Amino acid sequence: MNNDINEQLGRAAADPVALRKNVAGAHIVPLLMSYVHLTGDKSYLDKVRPYVHGGWDYQQDIPQELQAQIRSGLVEAIEGLAERGGVVHQDPPTAELKAMMNAACGAEVPDMYVPIFFEETCFGGRDYRAVSWRKEVPARRKQEFEVVIAGAGFSGLVMGVRLKQAGIPFTIIEKNANLGGTWYENSYPGIGVDTPCHFYSFSLMPNPDWPEFFSKGAEIQAYLERIADEFGLREHIRFNEEIVSAEYREDSCSWAVHCRKADGAEELLEARAFVSAVGALNRPAIPRFPGLESFEGPMFHTARWDHSVDLKGKKVVMIGTGATGIQVGPAIVDEVGSLTIVQRSKHWIIKHPMYHEQVPEAVTWATRNIPYYLDWFRFGLFWAASDGFYDTLKIDPAWSDPQHSLNAENASMREELIAYAKSEVGERTDLLGKTIPDYPPFGKRMLRDNNWYRMLCRPEVELINAGVERIEPDGVVVDGRKIEADVIVLATGFEAHRMLGPMEIRGRSGVTLRERWGDDNPRAHLGITVPDFPNFFVLYGPNTNLAHGGSAFFHSECQVRYVCEALREMLENDWDELEVRREPYEAYNAKVDEEHRHLVWSHPGVTSWYKNKAGRVILNSPWRLAVYRQYTADINLAEYHCRRIPLSEAG
Ligand code: NAP
């Protein structure tokens, strides 16, 4: 939640030197928005509008003179207001807010982003995503309504926060010794987030202190641990325990959840609702290369990095060049003797000018002390990093070069990406043929350049475009050629298709989720609920992965709100069972498939972990973030069977 604005004002005005210095160094657009809120003076909005081209600071070229006026106006406003005893927060009328949003993003921001602004920033200190009670629910009923959550990654934590707020008892079962999910499990060198951190965070607990715009894994893990501490979640988490199976008991409308502890002891928990928050990227995919077992040196998956292995001077072979591989390679290249990278298919790589930048002290100071600064900084990043690229993903059926691009915008992006690659590889033009994909940009996950091209240019690095033939005791055979290896790093991704595996989840009449979904065809209503599985909810479920931009936190928060609304309906209406009807579930999934037919991830030239064996896109959301938010903002009870079991049945 944002700080109390008068406390911020007091702190900002307390040290005039620091105020001037930091206002001089902070980003101009959030400063301007702070100025508008504090003074009501909107005259600068039209003046800056032609110079703002996006939500990041590097996307503005506001003349220095104009910037200086805004900065000194803000200093004056802060000092004046602090002297007069502060200010009372008021939400601007929608039209004014829209004018501010348009000026801040340098675009006509559609109306559907207005509620997102309020929710993402907890504007004015209000928690818009909290689901509050509309009528009294007896305490005993709430106490009996135990919820079990699988997984203490960020989705599980957000779910826990919201249940705690609502006074609903819950237990989180976590297979690891600590919380954090993927951020706990992945500790490979170079791990970091490629989404801007000031937006990749829980709306209820923004973090003004991110050290980098794209921070490293340890920072994110520490942040998740702070969420757990701040909201008192640890006492609800059972570590080193795994959910083996869960079955729905129709007679009591409850879930029997079977857990296994690290020592093998088993325990049965009973829950009125069961929430899966295990995510999709938690089971490493280890390809069955012939001879895999015969390798005599250290070999490990990136999500199980063996930190006891010293890579110094070693011949390292890394297999895989996805979002993980691109972070690992440049992080180990200085240490290794040689690095051979085996790439089965090529990936598009985009530059972000601030990818390696530290957050300047002035920006951190401003996010802490200047009222509204962090709100607008966050919203600008939301805009810049979410739906902005969406139009480039759409297949134009009349497009003349459908193999390489999808539409005019996508084609121009392709040209830009190629130009960037050329500028990075310089004389090593041989690398262009090895790295530029044939398929359109965004077909696979767009990778952020982490000095990858520059690393490829180094003499001790070789990139081989081929599949792996086999592994031998001392190396890897690729394309008929033996590559000697002391260490093999498997950057080969995750078993994302077998969603929710290996838990066995048994719904009504004993049907299992695996029977419904097969090995690789998961489907759910809004990615969250499944017919025949009452009182069961999936977070980060089918077709909810964000592949064009955005923050997984945002989607999680949308889903958690939806689940909380469902639970609220059950408790307020005294229902024992809530189950999605088949028709809306089928209709939603048909809509998802239809939408995907027109988007890049269905492109026939692309293989990716987003698709199943049959070519259906099962992981990605086809929607703009703002559209998915609309779909999930209010549960539609007409889409659900809701049932109260008569006392006689309940026994
Ligand atoms: P990935 O994107 O699935 O990449 C796996 C790599 O291994 C690909 O290059 C793949 O080749 C290759 N590979 C897999 N099986 C192979 C085989 N049998 N033989 C040869 N090569 C094989 O996995 P990831 O890089 O771990 O990333 C997974 C997801 O995690 C990302 O898409 C992203 O959502 C998330 N992630 C996020 C960040 C972040 O900064 N936010 C960082 C890391 C990961 P093909 O391309 O040919 O399949």
Secondary structure blueprint with pairings:
Blueprint: H1 5-14, H2 16-25, H3 28-39, H4 43-48, H5 64-83, H6 94-105, H7 114-121, H8 139-144, E1 147-150, H9 154-166, E2 170-173, H10 182-185, H11 217-230, E3 237-238, E4 241-249, E5 254-261, E6 266-271, E7 273-276, E8 299-301, E9 315-319, H12 325-332, E10 338-343, E11 349-350, H13 361-369, H14 373-385, H15 408-425, H16 430-435, E12 447-448, H17 452-456, E13 461-465, E14 468-472, E15 475-478, E16 481-484, E17 487-490, E18 504-506, H18 513-517, E19 536-538, H19 552-573, E20 577-580, H20 582-597, H21 625-633, E21 640-643, H22 647-650
Parallel strand pairs: 1-2, 1-7, 2-3, 4-18, 7-19, 8-17, 9-10, 9-17, 10-13, 11-12
Antiparallel strand pairs: 4-5, 5-6, 14-15, 15-16, 20-21
Helix pairs in contact: 1-5, 2-5, 2-13, 3-5, 3-14, 9-19, 13-14, 19-21
Please sum up the structure shown.
With 651 residues, the chain is of the alpha/beta class. Helices cover 35% and strands 14% of the residues.
The coarse overall form would be globular
The proportion of residues forming helix, as a percent range, comes to 25-40%
Number of E strands: 21
Provide mean pLDDT, rounded.
96
Q: What is the topology, as strand order, of the major beta sheet? A: 3-2-1-7-19
| Attached small molecules | NADP nicotinamide-adenine-dinucleotide phosphate
Per DSSP, the total helix count is 22
How many strands, what sense, and barrel or not for the largest sheet?
A: 5 strands, parallel
| Oligomerization | single chain
Strand content: 5-15%
Rg to the nearest angstrom? 26 Å
